[in-house]
Structure formats: C-alpha cells, structure tokens
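[Solved] Which block belongs to which protein?

Original post:
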Amino acid sequence: MDMAESDGERMTERPMKPIAGAKPNFFRPSMMFPAFLLKPVQGAFPFGPGGSLRPLGFGNRFQPHKVYGRIGNLEVRLARTKGDIKRAQRLRYKVFYEEMSAIPNALAILSRRDEDGYDSIFDHLLVVDHGNPAKGRRWGRPKVVGTYRVLRQDIATRNDGFYTQGEYDIAPLLRSRADQNFIELGRSCVLKPYRNKRTLELLWQGVWDYVREHGGSAMIGCGSFPGTDPNLHAQALSYLHHMKLAPAEWRVRAHEHLRVDMNMLPKDAINTRAAIRALPPLIKGYLRVGAYVGDGAVIDHQFGTTDVFLVMPVEAMNTRIFNHFGAPDELPTPVEQDFAALN
C-alpha cells in the first residue's frame, strides 16, 4: 500500500480538539501513555483553576520493549520512557509549529515541545533512525523521525474519553456500535527528510500491528487540510461529502457550534480528478485503505487547519493491506531486538 504521494509532501494528521472551556485532567496516576483526546484551550495549558502551574506527569507505568517493524536502519516501536515521549513531542513541535502554521503558547515556546494533557494516556509509536555504521553514522541514541499517538477505547473510557470528542459528537457512534473496539489515531508527523514511502509504510506497520495486538475493530481520528478557510478546499471537501461520507451506522457529525458544511458544490460540479489531487496525502491514504468521513468539517485555529473526521472499520478495509501488512486475525510477529543496546 502506497500512502505517500512524494518525498516532499507533508504527512501529518491530528485528532480532534476540545470544546471551548473544557479542561482535561492533568493528573493520571499509573498511566504512562495511550490516547487521543481533548486539547487544552490555547493559553490555558498547563494552568489549572486559579492559575496554578501543574506539571505534566506520565505516572509510573513504563512500556516493555516492543518493536513492530524494521527496514534497514529504521525501526518502529512503542515509546517506553518519558524521554521517548519528549523526543516525539519535540518532533511534533518542529513539524506543526516551525514548519506548519500552529500557534504555540508560552510553555510550548519555552519547551520547544508540542504537548497536551492527553499525552499521558496515549501510547506513542515512534519511527527511530539508528544511523548507518557502514557510513560512520550510528547515533548514541536513536533519532526519532516519525510518530503517531494511539488510544485504546478501554483507556479512553477510564479517563476523559476520546480526543476526537472535542470537535465531533462521537457518543452516538460509541453507543450504537458497542460491539466494536475503537482505537483512536492522531498527532502523526514525519521529519521532512524522511517523508517517503519507506518511512510511512513502516509507521503504518506499527499502527496496524498495534490495532491487531489489542483487538481493534475500528479506527477513528481526524485528518487536516492546511489553512482555516474551508472555501479554499471546496472541491476536495465537497468530494468527501458526496463520495466518501460514512454510511449511517458509522456516521459522526461535528458539534453544531463548530460545524462547517462540506457540501459546498453540487455533486455534478465536482472535478473528481482535481478533488483527489487536492486531498492531503494522509487523508488520501486513509481513503485508499477504506476510511469514511464524518458530517461537517471543523476549523482548528490553534493549528491553522481545517479538520475532517475519519472512521476506518476493519471490516471495510481494502483487503490488499492484509496481504501486505497481515490479516486482522493474525497476531503480529515479534521483531528481534538487534538495536536494544542503543535504547
């Protein structure tokens, strides 16, 4: 499966943001990672009521060494320590704030990290570069060049719910599809020199192995268009509305006070070829796998994007991905830890 469009295209994706005024619970004892939930209001994090500073803690749970795949000097694995997560946050800051148009608050400027109150309950997938000894490049510590956040439904239920709920009303979907095990994806980014098919496929291998390992039956999250003017994406948004809208049993609607109608052009006025070309690479990749979109877009002013909801039921996925990455009912094969000493 080729989810990358070219080496120079951005491959980023973020999950949903919070309803205005919502404050996440920053203290999550015993939780180390797993989720994609609400983002604190710009300027508010990390201050609690009364303006007191709350340090972001990751609890006491550390992940075992878990490697999902390897290609050459690159490997995809779970973050295991606070340091791993901080390196992923620095990569996110570099891509979202320095390269793209996200607006950092004072804490982000000082720390040079993209962090929120939900990092502590997400699992974090990392693509790390161990260097090339043959060319004299072997890092003392692996270089994080790609990352994804993933949240299991059981962890979300025990905490503040899914990050996506900040922009989309997902509660009816969770109730009506109680037979499903949802996993949320988000905060995906890749360092610019590594934006190629190899890195993205390795990152997806990690996501898919994680989903299979935890019995996930549907993935949710958000994809983003650059900019906060939806009219600039009228062709693509209208294409998504008319051609890729989720069937009723999987459909999610944006919160009314945030919702932007994606039905900007009538179906017969859409230039399908141009609309597909205008889709961001990650959204295009998800659609190729079998994802549907929700009803309505949402503008994220902090990150400078126009977001759309994506749901990917495993039952609707293109079977080609199973041939390449493994069938849903197959447990991922453990990868030998050749690089363990460097971690």
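(Second protein starts here: sequence line, then its structure tokens.)
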Amino acid sequence: MQIAECELSNLELQIFSFGFEIPQSEFPACGRQASSEIKEMNRYSVGSILGILFLWELLVRWLEIPKFLLPTPTTIISYIIAKIELLASHTLMTFLEAGAGFVIGSLSAIITAILFLWYRPLKEMFYPYAVILNSTPIVAIAAPIVIIFGSGMGSKVVTAVICVFFPVLGPTFKALASVGATEMKWMDSYHSSRWQKFWYLQFPFALPQVFASFKVAWTLAVIGAVVGEVFGAYRGLGFLIVDAIYIMDTPRVFASIIACSLLGLSFIGMITLIEKKTIAWHISEERR
C-alpha cells in the first residue's frame, strides 16, 4: 500500500519517538518528513531538559536555598563524580537483589501461568489470592518480610519477587489463553499434544506480551529492592538514601535517585534489544 500524502498525528509522532519505525518502502512520502520531525522532537526534549536544569540552578542560587534543602544540579553532578565508587558499589548490590528477584519472579510467574492454563481449577482456587496480594502496597509487605528474613540480601530478593510475580503472571496467562480457536483446531488436526500446542503455538504467540511485562517487572523489581533496603539493609541504594536523609546529605539523596533511574532504564534497554533479536519474526515487530 502506497501513501501519497503524509499527515502524521501527534499520537503517531509519539510512537515514532519511542523507537517505532514505518518502512519507507511502505510510506515513501512519509519517511523523510517523519524522520525530520522525530529529530526536531528530540531536540525539543533535550532543550526542555536543559532548560529545566538551568532554571533549577538559577532559582536555587538566586533564592539562596541551602544545599541541605535543595542542591543545584551542578552540586549533584559534582557529588556523583566525587563519589562514583561509593555509588557504584551500592548500585551493584541493588542490581544483584533486583536481578535475582526479577529472574525468580519472572520464571515463577511463567510456570504458574502455564499451570493455570493447563489446570483451570488451580486458577479458580489461587488467582483471587494473587489479586488480593497484588493489591496490597509493597511498603506494607516489605516490613514483615524484613522482620522474617532479616536485613540481608534475602529479604530484598523476596520483596522484588513479589513485585515482579504478578505483573508477569497476568499478561502471560492472558496471552497464552488468547490463541485463536482456528489455530488450535489446526493443531488438533495434526493430533498435536498439549505440550506441542504450547511450545509451537501458544508460547510464541505470547512472547510479545511476555517481553512487555518484563519491562514493567524490571522497574518494579528495582523498586521492591530499594523499598526493602529502606526498611533494613547495610548496603544498596535504599540504604544510601535513608542514611543520607539522617545526616541531611541531600546531594547524596539525589545522586542515589539518579542511580536508581539509570539502573532501571539501562536494563529495560537490554530487554528491548533481546526482544528484537528473539521475536524479530513476529508480526508485532514487522509492524514497527
């Protein structure tokens, strides 16, 4: 299908800006205009961030706000450079806790989704409890977990597992159960076993939803690990934030928050890369 004219809505431009691309062979008239508008939007985004930082710096200096209340961006950057080893060691601990929770929680959720798919009475029995536990704030759950499992790494991993489990379970089960009846009948015509249906049809069909849930789950894993560290830890970004609050070291608080954000964003980028390599054949990737 060839499109002679190019009129991109704001929603389409937002999709472009998040990395979705339309092949120029399909839309020859839109390709160059879309590319130029994406670059223009990126310039505006960078410009707005720099403008906010400049205004922040200017207002703090002009109003003479004390550093322990609100440090300037230059003060925060200087602290990060000066304490890069301290931040790196604590970030590594949070990464290990969140990573272990992410792996355990994701695998447990996928296995549970498969069991719910194959044995529906299990879903009817246990899914309501999963919904109740998922609706409980992690801040309320983290405190007893730290009391039960101690202030070591184990309690943070358990907290991260709880944060990861439900965001992966729901989309995975829904995607596995959403395979069309026509495709299932086609598999039945070849006398396929339940495992063959799962491995060759249902699981590949669910992969885009699984990877999408992974991106959300990793962010929640970092949040769970940090919340656990806030309630009791000797290392980690959450511990670093609490310790800085006690001594009014506000630059360290902002530096730790930036480290948390970078930790979340970097791993999401890795998941996106793995997704593109794993399901490049999927129609959802062909439409990007």
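Accepted answer:
You had them paired correctly. Confirming on the second one: The longest helix spans residues 194-231.
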